[in-house]
Design goal:
Strand order of the largest sheet: 1-2-4-3-5-6-7-8
Structural class: alpha/beta
Oligomer: single chain
Helix content: 25-40%
Number of helices: 6
Shape: globular
Number of strands: 8
Largest sheet: 8 strands, mixed
Length: 213
């Protein structure tokens, strides 16, 4: 019989308006993985949804965090400072279950997690599709945000990500490579791996890493 994951949504006030936490509850959770979305999309991103479907079956409650600008229906993300402020304001809701919280996200959400994780008391950081630099501008590196997190950090990066390919990352941040994946971890139809296999690389790597937290 397939185990059904309990899902619930919680609106949380922040200085920028209400955020929304989409909870995917593990029956016997040992930790919470909180994941923010990117600047170009929401919690429906394929990698976030894959983790929310897989990890609760392994004792990890997943909280997908919808930033206030998305909840309000806006199409353009605010400045990084506003994203950080909202994340700080909703953090007590993420910590409320009384479990260790791993901070993470994809793209802009990963940057938020890196900038705030240590001060908020996160156990570790998960960076999905970390935007190491703007496309075509490797000289504008954001590596300092990643290496400055000050906590155990796992980076998962698509092999074709124009915001930073795995081989571009600094020593000590060796990413898990998703074969043929782009910034959204989409793979071409002619790739040697299927979309399902690419997402399994992500869920397997994150699941194994979280076991050591």
């Amino acid at each position: 019989m397939t185990t059904k994951i309990a899902e619930t949504a919680q609106d949380v006030p922040t200085p920028a308006g209400d955020a929304r936490v989409h909870w995917y509850l593990a029956p016997d959770a040992r930790l919470v993985l909180a994941l923010g979305h990117g600047a170009g999309g929401g919690v429906e991103a394929r990698d976030l949804q894959a983790l929310a479907a897989a990890l609760p079956l392994d004792g990890v409650t997943v909280a997908l965090v919808e930033q206030p600008w998305r909840v309000a229906g806006k199409k353009v993300a605010p400045a990084p400072k506003a994203l950080d402020e909202a994340w700080r304001a909703l953090w007590p809701a993420l910590a409320a279950p009384g479990l260790p919280v791993v901070a993470g996200g994809r793209s802009a959400g990963a940057r938020v997690a890196c900038r705030t994780a240590a001060e908020l008391g996160a156990a570790a950081v998960l960076a999905l599709s970390f935007p190491l630099h703007p496309p075509g501008k490797p000289e504008k590196s954001r590596a300092g945000e990643l290496t400055g997190a000050g906590l155990p950090t796992l980076v998962v990066q698509g092999a074709r990500d124009p915001f930073g390919r795995p081989e571009e990352f600094p020593p000590g941040t060796e990413p898990v490579t998703v074969p043929a994946g782009d910034h959204g971890f989409a793979v071409p139809k002619k790739a040697d791996v299927t979309q399902t296999e690419a997402l399994a690389v992500i869920t397997d790597a994150v699941g194994m890493w979280l076991k050591a937290i």
